[in-house]
Design brief:
single chain; about 425 residues; alpha+beta; OB fold (Dihydrolipoamide Acetyltransferase, E2P); BirA Bifunctional Protein, domain 2; eight-stranded mixed β-sheet; five-stranded mixed barrel; 18 strands; about 25% strand; RNA-binding
RNA sequence: GCCGGGGUGGCUCAGCCCGGUAGAGCGGGAGGCUGUUAACCUCUAGGUCGAGUGUUCGAAUCGCUCCCCCGGCGCCA
């Protein structure tokens, strides 16, 4: 039978559903040739679908001639459909084996599948469109989807409303240097680097909002933590303080960890990742205390500046669970952060730091809701008020105290799974040196 | 932008210091094999050594210029 004759693929089974209790069952599988080992009279094919791999055995004397010949002919990564009987066999890699009765090549792959065992990272990402098929990359994408699902379920449960912000914007959140410009009917528009300003507009109607949307940063970073395009989980709520938003953040991170740990066991095992669900509430230390911790590790941080990477890592290494550093100096934060009324040189803001040297996971805080105070900060930072006209107008019409945060979805994945590089967390990563495939 | 590492068959690399005209493993092709575990055995094809330029009888190898890639930092999620 060829695929042209098929009325339906009649798919009924997935690899992950097969175990020793399936012995004797006739299954129909669709997927790909992951490995092939040919021995003359017997051929082993490692079959792969989205849920795992299983060995398929074809014997010249037992399988039909058509099935055996198709197995001889098939190449690595060809798409196949097969019917066979499940058998328990200790010699098979997963302890289970399918003895073929029907083997159909749905789409024959060329003989030179380029991804070999010793392929380097650069090559794998040049071939990302093919590399994505591999079990590890499939598992990462499945977990990424579950992080999104966990976030939706958790935030919906806390009464947040999902919003869908613009990606094409006219001004930046904090400056201009890190925006990607584009031609927009004779004027210049930019790709959004954060939806925060739009969230602040949305909360007066919706009270609690969140989004998962792409953000763009035109910064030539050469590190394993940076992308030029990433998926940004941002939330904002009104009638709320800095303490309220830290509560939202820690409950969310806790919920994500719990969800992934229970829903993604197979993927975590495959990736060799273990998730420790952190206990609530997370520790909160002040910026000043963080400086002291750095000093104990032999690092001198000068007050008023954000921590450098080395110092942040040293501080993070002193913790076993995520923790907040709060009270960052006003001089080190963006113009919209609310200065502490009792101590204006620091802001009511915080970063959530992942432990063990990982570093920043989220950044958030309470925003300035008073117009005069915001204008003052805009002038202090030499920004142009006309760029923020609608954002300022929000403050003229009853904007309550409010707070929010942002988290990079890919960074969350890197932390949870212990990935070596943030590009592993992306379907098609975008970095300064990579825009294709 | 700054600091460091690197560009040699399809892939991963050796050769470069001490110049003599390119090699391995994997992958590909052909053949063999009834229990493999990214199988094994035999045969085989495949490279203007990142680009330009200089020195030299001779450059993958030495000098200069440039390009690209990788890691780190500044900054950030």
């Amino acid at each position: 039978m060829t695929s042209k004759e098929l009325k339906t693929y009649g798919k009924s089974d997935y690899v992950s559903e097969l175990d020793s209790s399936s012995a004797g069952k006739i299954v129909t599988l669709t997927g790909f040739v992951h490995r092939k080992r040919e021995h003359g009279g017997v051929i082993f094919i490692i079959f792969r679908d989205p849920t795992g791999i299983v060995q398929v055995a074809g014997h010249r004397k037992h399988a039909s001639q058509a099935a055996f010949e198709a197995m001889q002919q098939v190449t690595l990564e060809s798409a196949i459909r097969l019917i066979g009987k499940v058998q328990v066999d200790k010699r098979a890699p997963t302890g289970i084996e399918i003895h073929v009765t029907s083997f159909e090549i749905v789409s024959l792959a060329g003989s030179e599948w380029p991804l070999e065992k010793d392929a380097g990272d650069a090559f794998l990402y040049d071939k990302r469109h093919l590399y994505l098929r591999s079990p590890s990359q499939t598992a990462i994408m499945q977990i990424k989807a579950e992080i999104s699902r966990a976030a939706h379920e958790h935030l919906d449960g806390e009464g947040f409303t999902e919003i869908f912000p613009p990606i094409l914007v006219s001004a930046s959140v904090e400056g201009g240097a890190t925006l990607f410009p584009l031609e927009y009917f004779g004027s210049t528009a930019y790709l959004s680097q954060s939806a925060q300003l739009y969230e602040e507009a949305a909360i007066c109607g919706l009270e609690k909002v969140y989004l998962i949307a792409p953000s763009f940063r035109a910064e030539k970073h050469r590190t394993r933590r940076h992308l030029t395009e990433f998926w940004h989980l941002e939330a904002e709520l009104t009638f709320a303080t800095h303490d309220d938003i830290m509560g939202v953040e820690e409950r969310l991170v806790h919920a994500i960890c719990k969800h992934i740990k229970s829903k993604c066991k197979r993927q975590l095992t495959l990736l060799g990742a273990k998730i420790k669900v952190p206990s609530l509430p997370f520790k909160r230390i002040t910026y000043d205390e963080a400086i002291e911790i750095a000093a104990q590790q032999g690092f001198k941080a000068s007050w008023g500046e954000d921590f450098g990477r080395e110092i942040e890592r040293a501080i993070s290494q002193q913790f076993k669970e995520p923790f907040f550093i709060k009270g960052y100096p006003t001089s080190a934060r963006s113009f919209y952060h609310l200065p502490d009324p009792d101590r204006p040189e620091v802001t009511l803001s915080s970063d959530l730091i992942a432990p063990g040297g990982f570093g920043e996971l989220t950044s958030g805080g309470q925003r300035i809701h008073d117009l005069d105070q915001l204008m003052e900060r805009i002038h202090e930072q030499s920004l142009d008020p006309s760029s923020y006209s609608w954002y300022l107008e929000l403050r003229e019409f009853g904007l309550p105290p409010h707070a929010g945060f942002g988290m990079g979805l890919e960074r969350c994945l890197v932390w949870l799974l212990g990935l070596k590089h943030i590009r592993e967390a992306c379907l098609f990563p975008r970095t300064p040196s990579r825009i294709r495939p």
